[in-house]
Design goal:
The chain is mostly helical. It contains 88 helices and 9 strands. It has a 4-stranded antiparallel sheet with strand order 3-4-5-6, with no helix packed on it. Helix 37 crosses helix 38 and helix 53 packs antiparallel against helix 54. It is flat. It starts with 5 loop residues before the first strand and ends with a helix. The relative contact order is 0.01.
């Protein structure tokens, strides 16, 4: 075109009124080549990383433009094909593109190392080169920056120079020299200092380095503007270092701490924390940074300045186990800080650990001896520690007056008694609560000894505390020893008080008895009565005997004891013998009226007057228990004594059983109408009077027991049986209707007498009791009783008498049922007779019992069913009974012929169904199916189907299923009919049936046919339901592979394709197999299985062809690319590299890596590792397999490794394999390696000279190993100039060792260097000796002058005299003037004739001496008095 294409750059999306406006460049012509005037751009890709625009044209030209200037940087044709798609490559800041025809992948990126040199040298655009280097921080414009910087300084453009230096790439101009140059420039009025302009420019750009931060901080701190430093530190504009922290420390401790923390200077950071009092942070910080502090020294210094702070610091250290608590104690006690020591130990020892016992003892000792016993007392009171020396602390407590604490710690009984007596000696010093609790810690024996000691020393004064201790620890010590203790001292009062505190709670009989005894001796009769009345523990016999022997004035304690413990006889005898009849009356009336019978009995035994007894009974009245009284009196044969008293009670309406029993016994004995009394009286106890009457008159006993209403049935049966009263017994049993009682009398026994009695009873029941009764319940209960007693013969006899011989109960259904059932159980031969004679019984129920497994009366049951079926009124009932009848024939009699005849006779469908079910159970499937068809019964179609399947009777099953399908609409029937057609090979009927509507499960039957090999039938079934997956398998089994592929396409299932593919591969149909395979490989989960199939069949090339064809699929995934690469590695390795380079980004790199390693394809493996960014492994692989080594590739990878060890393995590899390229490798690795280790490694490999250029380049870091290696190489090369220069510039090495090494070198210059080194290290004697040996007298004189040593100067003077060197002698006097004593110099000159040579020294010395004396005279001259001076002047004036 006539108008060339132009590049127009403009910022979009930004408001034109925004600050700074909108970025816009004027259109720039595109430099189109002459051979492509009609070319035009097809793609533009901006690089955010480099701010460069990539442009691709239609003819394959690549253009690079600088976005900010629009200038063209580069143009070249990179392809002859059109690039149809491009995209940015963010990792490199470049661009990726793909050509249209070949699909070639293009990668374009900028070489950052050569970009700026290219712009400067080729394009000759210095401004653009500087702009790129500054903006992108790229090398290549160093000379330009330096020249520009120099020019700006020369013209006075300080701001421009500052900006140039700040923008210099890679910190080229940010050096100490630059700062010094800015500092040397004088400031202009009204403008900031040039150096501040420079620093301001750097702060705007970013963070200052260490040197810049220090140089900026110096003037800022001098001006006191610490707020600026604080702001810059907050914004992270300064690089923190120890030197910066030292500067800031002078102005602000807090800011210095921040600097030290960032610079990782633990020692000085901790010092700042100490000054700020942040003791709690020191230990945590030191632990965090791994710094080992001398905490002991820090604590020692702090304890004198800030004791409280030292305490808090010590607590923090102890909590973190950073200091031994013993050291802390020594430090604090060394400063006599008892309070702080105590506080620290309380905190440090709160864990109460066994290993801290010494410190616990020390803590208590400090306070007990240091005048603070109250602190120790509080510690011991709170039981804070348990591992200290208790015996030692006890002695300290006793000495400090803490008797209570001493007692707590003493273990020896003598010590305890001594302390206890000392405590109890003064009443105000006794703490009863403590003493009581303390005795709880002593053993019983020790406690007894202490109590005995207390009573022995002062019984009256210590009685109270002794009794309290004895009461509290009664259980531990024991009551018996304590009682013996008090009785041993005859201290009954103390015994009374002691026992009085425990008697209410003690369960020891001895305690209660001794308390009663002590109370009696102390005249405490109320207590004696109380304990005797309330206590339940004491030994009653012992107490009773004591009270009887003591004969107390008041017998009430004895009365209570005897009353509670049933010593009524002894009490009555005691009171009666002592004439205390009044107390007897009081006892019976008020204390225990219920024990009056025992008192009366004992009085009768003592022949007491009966009038007193009657009076006593009348006084007691109704409170006296009658039964016991009657027993006592009856036992003594004095019952008549009570008749008036009893009759009087009854007359008052008394209803007590005992009263009526007693009067009844009297009436029976006296025969005063006992029958009337026994019949009419309602209050006596029948059991008592019946027992009483048995021996006098059994009939009266029967009346009494009958009156009990069943409570005395056993006694009634016994009396009537023993006395032959069976008729009364039978009538009573029938009327009673008690089955349990019947079971008692009818129970069989081994005793013949009992059998005869039972027979007599049964006869009376049959002959008398039942004929007399008209109540059916009586009959029913009696029959039940006979049944329960298992007396079938007797029961049959009884029932025949009632039912068959004519009675009111002949037609009773229950009795007829019972008769037949009894016969079934006892006499089966008579059952059929009863069935034929009787009509009113429950036939079906009886028949069920008869045909049960227990009785097996099948014929009788069949007769009952047929008899009642004929008599049935309802057809349904008739049918049911016929079904039950045929059930008896088929299930029990097993007579199928009779059953078939019976079914033909009755011709009922339910009967046919019952017969069919039985036939089916017998296995006659054909007859059963025929019966089911006659019954038109499809209910049991599942059982029929199962039976037909077992017998394989599908031909006969078809008509049954046809019939059942008409009555039942179930999928099972249709399904089984389909299967039957298939089994019978009726494919036509099958096809016709499945074409018609049906509910069969065609899917399941199809699968079943498929599993059983009926593939033709299965094909019809699967085709009818469009199950193409299974249909394809059927075609495979029928060897119809083309049709199988078509079906698989319709099914579109991976599993189906796999089966089709497998079958086609095995038969060699690879074209069809490839069609199926393409559908499989798009699924990653099945790819490996497909690969194994082809490899096992020995067809890898077919598989490769399949994979290559699959690369173009839309659904192609990484597995296809990866698996094809694996196949290439195995079978076509020559194609693998090309495949990897094209498709590496779409592969599973680890898997393909393993394949390459297995195939020993190391070039491909390295390429994969690099592209996968596994640089460590890539480098290791090239080292292990040198055939894969490529120098540029190696350098590219080794810079990006993460494991530093790989660097050193690489160095070793280059030394051994590529020694000429070693320096280049080291130059690349310089920022990453440990130079000292590199030197050691190369030295070990004995190739140190190879790396001399590298060593020179890194010597600026002033490392010991590097300096020593360089110096060693200089010595080997005999390059003394370089050696001296190295020594002067870099001093970090073992200088003395170097001097010793070269002091005997054959070259003089090396020996001079040795002397020079000795002089620098202040070994002047050695340096002078070397110089004298080499006759380098000038060097020796300069060394002596620098040393300032007079002795050395005198020695060298003598040396020059010895060698007769006058000139050197004179030179030494001049050079070492201040070191030489004048007497020595003059003497040596006089002795050796060097007077002329020493004269200059003497003159100089005389002048200096004169000046000093003159100065002293002026200082010591007396001051002139102003008055004297005025007088002298006046006199002089007067004289004039």
């Amino acid at each position: 075109p006539e108008t060339p294409a132009k590049l127009f750059v403009m910022e979009v999306g930004r408001d034109k009124d925004a600050p700074g406006g909108v970025f816009r460049l004027a259109p720039v012509p595109i430099p189109v080549p002459a051979d492509a005037p009609n070319d035009f751009p097809v793609s533009m890709v901006p690089s955010a990383k480099h701010d460069i625009l990539y442009m691709i044209t239609k003819m394959g030209y690549l253009y690079l433009f600088d976005v900010f200037s629009g200038k063209a940087l580069y143009r070249a044709r990179i392809t002859t094909d059109t690039v149809f798609v491009t995209c940015p490559q963010t990792s490199t800041g470049g661009m990726l593109g793909i050509t249209a025809r070949k699909g070639q992948l293009l990668q374009v990126s900028v070489n950052e190392q050569t970009l700026v040199p290219y712009v400067v040298s080729t394009l000759r655009d210095n401004a653009l080169g500087i702009a790129l280097a500054s903006r992108l921080n790229l090398p290549g414009a160093d000379d330009l920056y330096v020249a520009e910087f120099q020019r700006q300084l020369q013209v006075g453009d300080v701001a421009g120079a500052a900006k140039t230096a700040a923008d210099s790439p890679q910190g080229l101009l940010r050096t100490a020299e630059t700062i010094q140059r800015f500092q040397a420039i004088p400031g202009q009025p009204g403008q900031p200092q040039p150096v501040f302009q420079y620093f301001h420019m750097l702060l705007e750009k970013g963070k200052l380095n260490q040197l810049e931060s220090i140089e900026l901080a110096k003037p800022v701190l001098q001006q006191g503007r610490t707020q600026f430093l604080e702001k810059w530190l907050t914004e992270d504009k300064l690089e923190c270092s120890e030197q910066l922290g030292d500067l800031v420390m002078q102005a602000d401790v807090n800011m210095a701490l921040s600097v030290y923390l960032r610079a990782n200077v633990p020692e000085k950071a901790i010092n700042c924390m100490l000054q700020r009092g942040e003791f709690d942070k020191i230990a945590a910080y030191a632990t965090k940074v791994g710094y080992r502090c001398d905490y002991s020294f820090m604590l020692s210094s702090l304890v004198r300045q800030n004791p409280q702070g030292a305490l808090e610091f010590a607590k923090q250290l102890a909590a973190g186990s950073l200091i031994d608590p013993n050291q802390v104690v020594e430090i604090f006690m060394g400063a006599n800080r008892i309070q702080e020591t105590t506080a620290f130990l309380l905190e440090a020892l709160k864990g109460n650990k066994p290993e801290e016992g010494y410190l616990q003892t020390k803590l208590l000792e400090i306070n007990l001896r240091g005048g603070s016993p109250q602190v120790a007392d509080a510690i011991l009171q709170n039981a804070m520690f348990t591992h200290y020396d208790r015996q030692y602390v006890a002695k300290l407590c006793e000495a400090a007056g803490l008797a209570q604490r001493a007692l707590e710690h003493y273990t020896d009984v003598d010590d305890i008694k001594r302390s206890l007596l000392a405590m109890c000696a003064s009443p105000q010093g006794v703490n009863p609560e403590f003493v009581l609790s303390y005795f709880g810690s002593l053993s019983p024996e020790a406690s007894l000894e202490c109590l005995k000691e207390l009573l022995a020393r002062n019984m009256r004064g210590n009685m109270q505390i002794v009794t309290q201790v004895a009461a509290k620890y009664n259980e531990q010590i024991g009551a018996q020893p304590l009682i013996d203790l008090f009785e041993g001292f005859k201290c009954y009062e103390g015994l009374f008080y002691y026992l009085g505190q425990i008697v209410n709670f003690s369960q020891d009989p001895l305690v209660h008895f001794k308390y009663i005894e002590a109370a009696a001796k102390c005249q405490q009769f109320k207590e004696v009565e109380r304990v005797c009345r309330d206590s339940t523990v004491y030994d009653a016999v012992q107490v009773k005997d004591f009270l009887m022997d003591a004969k107390l004035p008041d017998p009430r304690p004895l009365i209570h004891v005897c009353d509670r413990h049933d010593f009524v006889d002894e009490m009555t005898a005691y009171l009666y013998s002592n004439g205390l009849l009044k107390y007897i009356e009081v006892y019976c009336n008020k204390v225990s009226p219920q024990k009056t019978p025992a008192v009366v009995g004992k009085l009768l035994d003592l022949d007491c007057n009966e009038d007193f007894v009657r009076t006593l009974l009348n006084a007691v009245g109704h409170a006296c228990p009658v039964e016991e009284l009657v027993e006592q009196v009856e036992h003594r044969n004095r019952l008549r004594l009570l008749q008036p008293w009893l009759e009087a009670r009854i007359a008052t309406g008394n209803q007590e059983v005992g009263t009526h029993n007693a009067i009844g016994k009297i009436y029976v004995t006296l025969n005063r109408d006992p029958v009337s009394f026994l019949t009419n009286d309602q209050y006596y106890d029948p059991k008592v009077l019946g027992k009483y009457c048995e021996k006098l008159d059994p009939s009266l006993a029967f009346l009494a027991y009958k009156r009990a209403n069943g409570e005395c049935d056993e006694d009634l049966i016994r009396v009537t049986t023993e006395n032959g009263l069976f008729k009364d017994q039978a009538r009573y049993l029938v009327e009673k209707q008690d089955l349990e009682l019947w079971a008692t009398v009818l129970r069989p026994s081994d005793d013949p007498t009992d059998d005869s009695n039972r027979r007599a009873l049964i006869d009376q029941v049959v002959q008398t009791a039942l004929p007399e009764t008209k109540d059916p319940d009586h009959v029913s209960t009696t029959v039940k009783a006979f049944m329960a007693a298992d007396l079938p013969s007797e029961l049959i006899e009884l029932l025949e008498r009632i039912v068959l011989q004519g009675s009111d109960f002949s037609e009773n259904k229950n009795l007829q049922n019972l008769l037949i059932l009894t016969a079934i159980k006892a006499d089966k031969d008579r059952v059929m007779e009863y069935i034929n004679r009787l009509d009113n019984f429950d036939g079906p129920e009886i028949a069920k019992i008869a045909v049960s497994d227990q009785y097996q009366l099948y014929e009788e049951g069949f007769v009952i069913y047929t008899k009642f079926a004929k008599r049935a009124e309802q057809p349904a009932e008739t049918t049911e009974l016929n079904v039950m009848a045929v059930g008896v024939l088929v299930d029990m009699l097993r007579s199928m012929e009779r059953a078939a005849e019976f079914a033909e006779r009755v011709n009922e469908s339910q009967v046919w169904s019952r017969l069919a079910k039985a036939q089916l159970s017998e296995g006659t499937v054909g007859e059963a199916i025929a019966s089911y068809i006659k019954a038109n019964d499809a209910e049991n179609y599942r059982e029929v189907i199962d039976a037909a399947e077992r017998e394989d009777s599908y031909e006969s099953l078809v008509p049954y299923l046809t019939m059942a399908r008409k009555n039942v609409k179930e999928p099972t029937l249709d399904t089984m009919l389909i299967y039957s057609y298939a089994k019978a090979d009726k494919l036509g009927d099958l096809e016709e049936f499945i074409a018609a509507p049906n509910v069969g499960s065609i899917q399941s039957i199809g699968e079943r046919c498929f599993d059983e090999g009926m593939f033709a039938a299965a094909k019809l079934l699967f085709a009818s339901i469009n199950n193409n997956a299974k249909l394809a398998l059927c075609y495979i089994n029928l060897e119809q592979y083309r049709e199988a592929v078509d079906a698989a396409q319709k099914a579109n299932s991976v599993s189906t394709w796999k089966e089709v593919n497998k079958a086609c591969v095995k038969v060699g149909e690879f074209r069809l197999a490839r069609i199926a395979g393409l559908q499989i490989i798009v699924h990653p989960d099945h790819l490996e299985e497909l690969t194994l199939l082809y490899e096992r069949e020995g067809q890898p090339m077919e598989l490769i062809q399949l994979m290559e064809q699959g690369l173009g699929l839309d659904a192609a995934h990484s597995g296809i690319f990866t698996e094809l690469g694996v196949l290439y590695s195995k079978y076509l390795p020559e194609k693998l590299m090309e495949h990897i380079k094209i498709f590496w980004s779409r592969m599973n790199t680890p898997k393909l890596m393993r394949a390459c390693e297995k195939a020993l394809l190391w070039d491909e493996a390295v390429f994969l590792l690099k592209e996968d960014e596994q640089y460590d492994t890539a480098v290791k692989t090239m080292i292990a397999h040198s055939t894969a080594f490529q120098h540029d590739l190696f350098l590219d990878c080794v810079q990006k490794v993460r494991n530093a060890e790989v660097y050193y393995k690489s160095i070793t590899f280059y030394v051994e394999q590529q020694p000429l390229l070693l320096v280049r490798l080291l130059q690349v690795l310089t920022p990453n390696v440990d130079h000292s280790r590199v030197v050691h490694l190369v030295r070990k490999l004995e190739n140190l000279p190879l790396v001399l250029p590298y060593l020179k380049s890194i010597q600026k870091e002033n490392l010991t190993a590097v300096n020593e290696a360089v110096n060693e190489l200089y010595i080997e090369d005999e390059d003394y100039d370089q050696l001296r220069s190295s020594i002067d510039d870099f001093d970090n090495f073992d200088q003395v060792a170097l001097a010793q090494k070269i002091e005997k070198h054959e070259l003089l210059e090396f020996r001079r260097i040795a002397a020079y080194i000795y002089k620098k290290n202040k070994r002047y004697q050695k340096a002078v000796a070397l110089s004298k040996a080499d006759k380098m007298y000038k060097d020796s004189i300069e060394t002596v002058a620098e040393s300032g040593d007079s002795d050395l100067a005198e020695e060298i003077l003598r040396f020059f005299c010895d060698v007769c060197d006058k000139e050197c002698f004179c030179a030494t006097l001049f050079t070492c003037y201040h070191q030489i004593k004048p007497d020595v110099a003059i003497e040596l000159a006089w002795r050796n004739g060097y007077t002329d040579f020493v004269m200059p020294y003497v003159i100089q010395y005389a002048r200096h001496l004169h000046d000093k004396v003159d100065m002293l005279d002026k200082r010591t001259a007396p001051k002139e008095d102003p008055e004297n001076k005025a007088e002298q002047e006046a006199a002089a004036a007067a004289a004039a």
